[in-house]
Amino acid sequence: MRWLRPLAITALCATVAACSTSPTGRSQLLLLSDDELNNMGSQAFNQYQQELPAAGQSSQRYVQCIADAIVAELPQEQQRLDWQIRVFEEDSPNAFALPGGYMGVHTGMLDIATTQDQLASVVAHEIGHVLAKHSNERASTESATQLGLSVLSSTAGIQSDQLMGVLGMGAQYGIMLPFSRRHESEADTIGLDLMARAGFDPRESVTLWQNMQQASGGGQPPAWMSTHPSQGQRIEGLQANMSGAMNAYEQARNNGRTPNCPRP
Question: Which top-level group of life is the source organism from (predicted)?
Answer without folding.
Answer: Bacteria
